[in-house]
Specification:
single chain, 580 residues, alpha+beta, Rossmann fold, Phosphatase 2c, domain 1, Heat Shock Protein 90, six-stranded mixed beta sheet, five-stranded antiparallel beta sheet, 17 helices, 21 strands
Length: 580
């Protein structure tokens, strides 16, 4: 039965449609009259089942539901109606003559929003309906704002994926799991190759989650990729990100991060843990945890300057080993009782992953079983790096040497062309942090623009500078690298000596001779060290290459000419190219 507002009330605005469910005709007649005066169209139902059917057939704005009815009572009918309108607020007012507290509480428990006691009073009914309408309007406003927020987050997520994630490399070889707590995640994973073909991986976790937590993702990815492409070292990249975030993030927001540099030779990794959970290095065959690397640095963006070089952890690795990175959303995930997953369960899942191709798969399954249907409190991200040749580009020193074409600088001579020179000297404390190689590469490109030769030039300049610093200024012996823990000992000693370095110098000079059909670069480097017996070192290298796989032979092969000058603390390399 449907009762409409009559035409004898021309000034009465239609407020909506009311559903009245009561098995007593007299009660329906009274409510019908009262609701018509308030401007409602009325639909009547004789029991709970009839009320559910008519609710499904019509667009209802408010429900007045009797409790005790045949076929289906008001409790059951209300539960069904509320379950079918989860995304829309349809108020239900219970009609009851009961005064028992438990019965009234039951009305609210099943989804009722208020109750109206018999006999009905026009003033009370009007007041309760007005109250429900205010709540209904607020709910509509909130729903509209929520939908708009979701749409904004979905658009922002598309921008995030395109601008931040799309630039990542080697994703087909990396196993990673990402479960955001909302549409937008505060976790970020970045990967990029350096000019020397090392792989840089950053896993970050911004404070909180959602859109606000991801505000720093764009500048972080820009700094990470641009500095990696230019050949900056991990400590310099972290300092660049740290400075950027410190300037732009509001107080209380920061980025916890794990940064892993995987050497192109796949024999060692360098790890920086800045306020993140422990990072694991795992034996690829036994799944035994070889190294557990805890945080040594503060998260990024809190203080303007930080010496990340002192917090580096250098680890010797074997072919097939795995590196597992996780955000705190893994260990802090909770089960339905509120208990945390914790680091011990994580370690157990790692060590019991022997039959699976990826360790991460077993950890993910264990996490799902533990959490069951408990709500997710934080973003969860895990990254597994398999230390295999497929992880790195198809580049090796021997391949570079095979492709290298030597050019006689005299064949390029153009007497009308002028040479340009550039000199830089780093002294004392400057040698702790500064890396001149990216600056030198940039200068060469600005002068002659030979980007196709970047890889070779980067290798030559890096070898010259590292040799001058490590062996000339610091006096380190390459024999320290020998043995299972040699790399770790070497880098620990290098970091220790660098942190105490207050004197010494390295001077680098470039003389560029651009020609019409190519050109050549004369690179001269001099350190403040005592020098060495380069004649004997050259002959020894012919018999046994340096443990690091680089040295005089590599430089001699890449350059048109390479030589040391007395007393052994000066070197000169000439690199030539042709315009093809």
């Amino acid at each position: 039965m449907i009762e409409t507002v009559k035409a004898d009330a021309p000034n009465l605005k239609l407020r909506g449609t009311a559903l009245v469910a009561d098995d007593e005709l007299s009660n329906r007649v009274i409510l019908n009259a009262l609701l018509k005066k308030l401007g409602y169209q009325v639909i009547q139902a004789v029991d709970g089942a009839d009320a559910v059917e008519k609710f499904r057939q019509h667009s209802i704005d408010i429900v007045l539901m009797d409790v005790m009815m045949p076929v289906m009572d008001g409790y059951a009918a209300t539960e069904i109606i509320k379950s079918e309108t989860a995304d829309k607020f349809i108020p239900v007012l219970f009609l009851t003559a009961m005064t028992d507290d438990k019965a009234l509480a039951r009305c609210i428990e099943v989804g009722g929003d208020d109750f109206l006691t018999k006999p009905y009073n026009h003033t009370v009914l009007s007041a309760k309906i007005q109250s429900m309408e205010r709540i209904q309007n607020l709910h509509q406003d909130i729903r509209m704002l929520y939908n708009r927020m979701q749409m904004d987050e979905e658009i922002a997520e598309q921008v995030f994926s395109g601008a931040v994630l799309a630039g990542n490399v080697v994703l087909d070889q990396i196993s990673h799991l990402h479960k955001p707590a909302s549409i937008f995640s505060g976790d970020i994973m970045l990967t990029a190759y350096s000019p020397s073909h090392d792989l840089h991986v950053l896993l970050g976790d911004f404070t909180g989650h959602g859109l606000a937590a991801a505000l720093g993702a764009l500048p972080t990815s820009e700094v990470f990729r641009s500095m990696t492409a230019k050949g900056f070292s991990p400590p310099q990249i972290l300092q660049g990100i740290n400075s950027k975030l410190h300037k732009m993030l509001p107080t209380g927001m920061f980025l916890a991060a794990q940064f892993v540099k995987i050497s192109a030779s796949l024999d060692y990794i360098t790890v920086f843990n800045c306020g993140m959970p422990d990072l694991f290095v795992i034996d690829g065959n036994t799944r035994r945890i070889k190294n557990r690397l805890e945080s040594r640095s503060m998260p990024l963006g809190i203080i303007p300057d930080s010496n990340f070089q002192e917090d580096a952890q250098h680890i010797r690795v074997g072919l097939g080993d795995r590196v597992l990175l996780t955000t705190d959303g893994v260990s802090e995930a909770r089960d339905p009782t509120g208990e945390y997953f914790g680091s011990e369960r994580l370690i157990t899942a790692i060590e019991q992953s022997g039959e699976q191709a990826f360790i991460l798969d077993n950890v993910s399954s264990a996490l799902d079983r533990f959490c069951s249907d408990a709500p997710q409190d934080d973003d969860i991200t895990m990254v597994e790096l398999p230390l295999l040749p497929e992880l790195l580009p198809s580049w090796r020193v021997d391949q570079l040497l095979a492709e290298q074409t030597h050019v006689d600088p005299n064949s390029l001579l153009d007497h009308d062309s002028d040479s340009v020179e550039f000199h830089i000297t780093l002294r004392g404390m400057q040698l702790r942090k500064a890396d001149p190689v990216p600056l030198l590469i940039n200068y060469i490109q600005e002068m002659v623009g030979i980007r196709t030769h970047n890889q070779v030039l980067f290798t030559i300049l890096t070898e010259l500078f590292i040799n001058a610093l490590d062996h000339g200024v610091l006096g380190l012996d390459s024999s320290l690298k020998e043995g299972p823990d040699g790399f770790t000992r070497y880098f620990e000693e290098r970091d220790r000596m660098l942190s105490q370095l207050n004197e010494g110098s390295v001077h680098i000079g470039l003389r560029i001779h651009p020609q019409a059909n190519g050109g050549w670069i004369v690179i001269q480097i001099e350190d403040s060290g005592p020098g060495f017996d380069f004649a004997n070192a050259t002959s020894a290298q012919g018999e046994k290459p340096l443990f690091s796989g680089r040295g005089i032979q590599l430089l001699s092969s890449l350059c048109e000419s390479f030589s040391y000058l007395e007393p052994g603390n000066r070197a000169e390399a000439i690199y030539a190219w042709t315009n093809e």
